[in-house]
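Table S2 (text version). Query chain:
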Amino acid sequence: MSHPDPKARQPLRPRPYKPGLPSAPSPPSPSTAKVPTRLPKSYYVVGGLFIYGITVYSYSYFSAVKERPSDHGLPIQDADVSLTYDNIAHDFDNCVGLSEFLGGINRQRKKLARQTKGHVLEVSVGTGRNTKYYNLDYTWKDWSANTHYAELQRRKTEQDAKKKSQAIPEVDIDVPPVSPWTEVRSKAPSPTRADLLKKSKQVSSLTFVDLSAPMVNIARKTFQSKYPGYGPVQFLTQSALDPLPPSSITNAVRRQGGYDYILQSMGLCSTPEPVQLLRHLGELAHQGRGKIILLEHGRGYWGWMNRYLDATAPRHAKVHGCWYNRDIGHIVEESGLVVESCKRKHFGTLWVIEARPWRDTDAPQRQSREAMEKKLTATTKPTVLAKSGGKEADAERKELNTPGPGFAARAWSSIRSLSGMNRMKEEDPGLDGREENEEKKDD
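Corresponding structure-token output:
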């Protein structure tokens, strides 16, 4: 006789229906449940920063627009405010240190200073914020030997003062005329080819120029603390528009034909004659291989930003001694320098320009470019010329108060002029009509 398996599953008995007791609703499945969506915290942070920036901009802009510079003793546009640096020299690094670090200007300073080699001239040196970035022929042995030598000189000076006052018995401290390491380097064997190649990429001499005497003193102390005992360097307290005084470094530069690199950071905003300054720097640079590197701040891309700069420029010039609303591109163009590269950051307000002096070899290029422009003017129809964005077309638009061409039309006209497509129009008469239709579509 077989017994039933107790583990066998028994059929479920239907439960009797109980009227009056509603069945409990089944819980929603996780896939179909509606979960309230929440924005990430980064959205609120970005939105709050945007609202804060708009509020600060609006307040500072409208408060600056309402005030008159004459009522608050503010300087007029492009006035000479260079003497302001004498008063803010000791607090200058503390004022601009954080903003330049957050804005990445320190990285730009280091990048530009590392490009220099040979005989280098830095104009508007200020407190020496670029001095620690130069690639000098200076090692840790130089620093150790010159630091020890400077300590001996300090102790010798104190000993001489005590001898005069007869405070302690006379004890002689022998100080050599020059640093011992300087003599060792002078007696070093002839350099190898690798040493010469390495030295060709380093700075041979440094000349620092600034009009503010307190600024120059701070820059000198900063440099001497970083490179004690470094020889080929000179600090000049004068205007960069004046001729450089004769010295061993200046004479060596004149014999070779000019400086290899000229660096200026935040200087065009503080000089009353920026165009003349750049022209003078072009004369000081070597005509064959000289480079002029500029790190400046000026007008930006958008009109609302430029209006803000114009409104706040008088107060900023009175406090910080610079006009940060100048058109740097127009100044460089008026100086006659040949721009090799131009980069703009911070909404176009930070200008990084690498230029060089005008050379005789540039004359044929300019003549050919002018001849090409005349040919384009003669062969291009008036309607196309009006859309090319020239000065005459801009003047006509201002008089007629008509909007300018779109971005696509300007880009197409530039590509056409560079590729010589106007020459193709003479061979293909039907090309002119197709161009006009495409320009109309772009507009």
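Notes on Table S2: The longest helix spans residues 41-66. The chain is about 50% helix and 10% strand.
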